[in-house]
What does this fold into?
Amino acid sequence: MTDLWAFLMQTLTASGAALLLLLIKALFRDKLSPRWQFASWGVLALVLLMPAGIGGRYVLFNWPFVVETLKSALTGEYGTLAHVTAPIPLPPHTLPATLPEWLFAVYAAGVAFLLLRYLIAYVRLRAALRKSPPADDSAIRAAAERYSQTGEPSKRGRYCLPVCPAVRVEGLPSAFVCGVLRPVLALPSETDEKVLLHELLHLKHHDVLWGLTICLFRCLHWCNPLLWYCADLAGNDLESLCDQRVLERLAGEERRDYGRILLSMADEKYARAPGTSSLSNGGRNIRRRIEAIARFRRYPAGMALASVCIVLILAQPLLTGARAQAIYPLSATAAVMSSARTVWCTTFAGAFDTYAKAVLTGSLPCRAMCAPLGEQNALAAELEAGREADFELPAKASPFEGYQIYNLEQDGENAWEGILAVALDSPPAGECWDEWGHVWIAAQAVRAERQGRRWVVLPLEPFRALATSVGSLSEYDGEGLPAWCYEAQSGDFTIRIEYRTSAEPDNFRKAEQPARDWSPLFKRSVFDITPRPDASFGSRNLQRRMVWAAYTGAPEQRDNYTSIKVSSVPLRADAEAAALPQPGDGNSFGSSSHGTAWASRTLDKGWQSPLFLGGSGGNHEISAPPDCYAVKLYLNGHAPTELTLLPVEGAEPYARP
It folds into this structure.
């Protein structure tokens, strides 16, 4: 945590987990044994130890929305995003200058003050114990030997219960263990054997370490009363667990004696130092422990399994959590921008999808979801003014046609580039529909890159309008867009393959109502304009190849060629090439799922160059374009010439006839 907002994110996340834990513990108070009552606090401890929002997931609620809305409402700042890097306060890089920075400095100072205070108290206690005379440990060893359980593995000498050095302290109300690495047992002038058993069990199960952990959480969240209350309950459950362990080693009248010992301490003040254990933990808590002793029983084996299931069910929503979701509807600018800014794009496909839908709908929140943080303040100002996102399209986009990302290519580890194409609702200014009603396309080169935890989209150029020869975006094959071009020369011909790809997440769904003229048994597909920030490119990825032959010989020799055939196969360094297919006769074209293609054309007199031999397409996985193409060229039925088509930088695609 490096600022106030990160602390709020962490402490609110922990508070939500604590409230759920308290509710479940209240429901199962008499059903879970003390072991599982205390073990359930481990779930909250894991929440406290993990930075809030790790992996983009949040405990129970959309806490980023709450924090970001509060931050934007109080500061007017939209260009930052609260991020918890560690569950402890880290020193800022600069001196505090604003009120939130001063408040965080006060919080950090409080943590340091409490840690120092507890440390000083512990050091003083250890110094006082060093001055105390050593105690005769014969009674301690006798208690350890008497209450050892048969068959329990021995780890420290011949005693199943460990022992440690002991000292006598005059005026001490009750025994306690002090220290983790070198524990010391502090004893009053007279100590009952059952009190010794209690402290030896604390020592055996390292309860001082657990108490120290609870103390650390108190310091980290000193200004959160709910977590202090949970720390008190966790300490009480730790003592109840130790009582349970004591009672399991006692029988009959010894259990009632143990209860009377606790009752005698009900009026004592509770002032345990950090790094220690003690039988006494305050009058109210001791009364609760006595009630637990009164209903003590050995829990059946089946209850242990049920307890495990309850803790696992509790842990699932607390530890795995859920991703933040956009909140609709909202009206306040701070809330709208916070909702958009905190539901960031987790994949490059999700960033492209969100940006494209912002273009289609003019939605500023959609643009905020995939915009760099440096643009958030400007977007908030546009939203405050009641304007839509302006992408300077040549004409209004048609949202029902969807979009396509052409020529998608990876640029380094955390960036992808492509060309966004959307259909226009009307021709650009000064243009008109042609007699066939062919669709107009708006295209823009865009780049998705990871910035921190967010994928954002950066436009690389303004939108440009393209007239097409198709009636819808789904039929558009990238005509007029750049392509990867591969060429090779053979005699009087230059053979070229133009390669394009298109990709889009599966955004089409069945409409709730059938189209008016359709049978009620069928429902038409409609484009879903809801952004999908975690989308992936799936089954709607296509590759398109167009094969050309350009004549470069003498014009008077052109009619000497009466037929041309071409077969091709893509070559990649990381994949084995497929076999070259055999072209057919006449005018034909074909392709396979491996990327192989073949074309055959009969040439009439006066044929024009460049000659379009055919195009093909098919589904493909997102990958880099081929390194080159292997081609066999057949002219006038003669034996084929083998060619290798290499990439040509900056080549302009041919215009289709």
Observations:
- The chain has 16 helices and 21 strands.
- The CA atoms of residues 23 and 268 lie 30 Å apart.
